[in-house]
C-alpha cells in the first residue's frame, strides 16, 4: 500500500530534480559521456572504479547506460547535452532508501565514503547522522593512510580523512575529488586485519570507493553521473546493488530535497 503523501513527495522531488538539472537535461556533455564509455570499454583503470568488469563493446555500453541511466540511446547523437531519466533516479533513490532503512532496523555496520566531497558530502553526512541515531556502527578505519599521486601540480600525497564518519581524500587540508579505488582497499584491509568481525554489512559511496567495495563482495549502494559508467556496469553484473543516476556536480544545496526524500524512504526522516 502506498503511504499517504508518498506520491506527492515523489512528484515534488521530480520537479526539483528537473529544475536543478540533477536529472533530466543535465549539464554533463554528451561528448564527455561517450569518451568515458570508450575508456571503460578499453579497460582504462581510471574508468573501472576498482571493478573487474566483463568485456563489453561500445554499443553494449551505450545501450546499458540508456537502460540504467537514461542517456540517449542514439549513437548518432555525439555532441551537445545529454539526459538522465528522472524516473530512473527516483526509482533508484527508493531502492537505496529501502536498503538504508533495513540497515537502520538491523543496526548494521555501514561504511560511507565519497569521491565528490565538494558537492555530495552533505548527503552522506545526513545519512550518517540518521544511521548513528538508529544504532548503526559507522567505523572510520585507515584514517591518515596516504599514497602518492601525480597531478598537474606534480607528485603529491593524498590521505584518507574523515568528515565525522564519511571518508574522503585530502591534500594539505583540502578535500579532493577522486576516482581511485586504492583508499577503499586500504580501509577494507585495516578492517579485515584489525577486527574481522566488523566487516561492513553495507557501503554507501561513489566512484572508486563504491567500486572497490562492490568488488570485495560487500553490498554497495551508490551515486553515479552519466559520464561514470563503471558503477552502472557493476550493477548490471550484480556487484553493485543500487546505482542512483544523477549529476554529481551541481551546487551542494540542491541535494537537500533529495537527501530528505532518501531518508524518508528509509523511514529515518524527521
From TrEMBL:
<dbReference type="Pfam" id="PF15698">
    <property type="entry name" value="Phosphatase"/>
</dbReference>
<dbReference type="InterPro" id="IPR031423">
    <property type="entry name" value="Phosphatase_SCO2771"/>
</dbReference>
<protein>
    <submittedName>
        <fullName>Phosphatase</fullName>
    </submittedName>
</protein>
Amino acid at each position: 500500500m502506498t503511504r499517504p503523501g508518498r506520491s506527492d513527495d515523489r512528484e515534488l522531488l521530480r520537479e526539483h530534480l528537473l529544475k536543478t538539472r540533477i536529472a533530466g537535461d543535465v549539464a554533463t556533455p554528451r561528448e564527455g559521456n561517450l569518451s568515458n564509455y570508450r575508456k571503460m570499454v578499453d579497460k582504462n583503470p581510471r574508468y573501472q572504479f576498482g571493478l573487474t568488469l566483463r568485456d563489453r563493446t561500445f554499443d553494449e555500453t551505450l545501450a546499458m547506460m540508456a537502460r540504467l541511466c537514461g542517456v540517449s540511446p542514439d549513437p548518432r547523437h555525439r555532441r551537445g547535452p545529454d539526459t538522465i531519466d528522472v524516473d530512473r533516479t527516483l526509482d533508484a533513490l527508493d531502492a537505496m532508501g529501502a536498503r538504508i532503512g533495513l540497515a537502520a532496523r538491523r543496526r548494521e555496520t555501514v561504511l560511507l565514503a565519497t569521491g565528490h566531497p565538494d558537492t555530495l558530502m552533505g548527503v552522506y553526512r545526513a545519512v550518517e547522522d540518521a544511521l548513528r541515531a538508529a544504532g548503526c556502527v559507522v567505523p572510520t578505519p585507515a584514517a591518515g593512510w596516504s599514497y602518492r599521486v601525480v597531478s598537474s601540480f606534480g607528485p603529491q600525497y593524498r590521505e584518507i580523512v574523515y568528515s565525522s564518519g564519511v571518508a574522503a581524500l585530502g591534500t594539505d587540508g583540502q578535500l579532493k575529488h577522486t576516482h581511485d579505488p586504492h583508499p577503499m582497499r586500504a580501509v577494507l584491509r585495516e578492517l579485515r586485519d584489525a577486527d574481522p568481525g566488523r566487516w561492513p554489512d553495507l557501503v554507501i559511496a561513489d566512484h572508486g570507493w563504491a567500486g572497490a567495495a562492490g568488488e570485495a563482495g560487500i553490498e554497495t549502494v551508490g551515486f553515479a553521473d552519466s559520464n561514470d559508467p563503471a558503477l552502472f556496469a557493476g550493477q548490471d553484473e550484480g556487484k553493485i546493488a543500487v546505482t542512483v543516476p544523477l549529476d554529481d556536480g551541481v551546487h551542494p544545496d540542491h541535494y537537500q530535497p533529495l537527501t530528505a526524500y532518501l531518508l524518508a524512504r528509509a523511514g529515518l526522516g524527521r
